[in-house]
Amino acid sequence: EVQLQASGGGSVQAGGSLRLSCAVSGFTFRSAYALGWFRQAPGKEREVVSCISFSDLSMAYADSVKGRFTISVDNANNAVYLQMNSLTLEDTAVYYCAARRTYYSCSQDMDYWGKGTQVTVSS
Q1: 29 C-beta neighbours (distance < 10 Å), count
Q2: In 3-state terms, what secondary structure has residue 98?
Q3: In the predicted structure, residue 110 carries a pLDDT above the cut 90
Q4: Three-state SS for 81?
Q5: DSSP string of 31-42, one letter each residue
Q6: Helices and strands, number each (H, E), in the chain
Q7: Hey, is 29 helix, strand or coil?
Q8: Is the pLDDT of residue 122 over 90?
Q9: pLDDT tens-digit profile of 29-77?
Q10: Cα dihedral sign, 18-23-27-31
């Protein structure tokens, strides 16, 4: 069974940092096409925050987080991370990690989803 377990969320003041982790089991990255981080704020649709494509190991970021967030992958440990710096109130959301094994991009149609981890940014 493929499982993705996100962790590292919590409460932080604006301007602070958090590092989210996603442990993947039952699935090896050699079979992955793309890994991504998504988030969903109350009353809003789920959006892609960052994505790493295994076609060329390129990283993509939403305009709202570009320059502040960094996605990385630890292939040996089947883990993907999201380093979040300079957090703002608008970053408050439930964050999800997801994997895809059919396309080299991230979308709402990811094949596997992990349970979200809450990130709350306060002023």
Answers
A1: 18
A2: strand
A3: yes
A4: strand
A5: G-SEEEEEEE-T
A6: 0, 11
A7: helix
A8: yes
A9: 778 899 999 999 999 999 999 999 999 999 999 999 999 999 999 988 9
A10: positive
Q: What's the token pair of residue 18?
A: 């958090």
Distance CA 28, CA 78 (A): 7
How many angstroms from the chain centroid is the CA of residue 15? 19
Give the C-alpha separation, 104 to 57, whole Å.
10
Assign residue 51 a region: left if phi > 0, alpha if psi is -120 to 50, beta otherwise? beta
Strand partners, 122: 13
Query: Would you state the structure tokens that stand for residue 79, as one six-digit string?
Result: 């883990």
Burial class (CB in 10 A: 0-12, 13-18, 19+), 103: middle
pLDDT at residue 92 tops 90? yes
From residue 105, alpha-carbon distances to 15, 25, 36, 52, 55 in Å are 30, 20, 9, 8, 9
Tokens of 27: 């699935």
Say which residue the tokens 């979040």 belong to.
84
